[in-house]
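Risk register update: the risk of archive-format incompatibility is retired. Evidence:
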Amino acid sequence: MTEKQQPGAGKRAVRITLESDSGGERIVRQMIGEWFPKGRHAYLRYAEPPEAEMGRTVTTVRVEQGEVRIIRHGDVSFEQTFAPDRRHYGYLRTSQGRIELETVTQTLDVAAEGPDTLLDVRWSYELSVMGQAPERCSICLTAVPVPE
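Archived output:
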């Protein structure tokens, strides 16, 4: 994608499925959002659903081969990066305050654009919250085009 392309070029409406497993608790959520390419990255953007209990919060996921970055803005702010064999520090900010996060990513598999799926990303990591003992987590994030 070149710098001179029109804003919004290449955006697609997508159905996003997010499956997470954290400490043995499995959560599956589906949302409608948008997918768009920009440079060497693919982006997903969606409003957090009511069951996530994040109020009015928009999540942006930036994906490239070897790295995923999640940023949330709104009632909840969050920032975290995942890259294999790397330690990253992030945060979660709610009305109750700021929580420091530390992740060590074990695996990250990015499958880009295919015939039926625009994006399929799977990663596993250890999460430590405010210096506590780490917990093993995994996420599967899939985006498929919404029929026009």
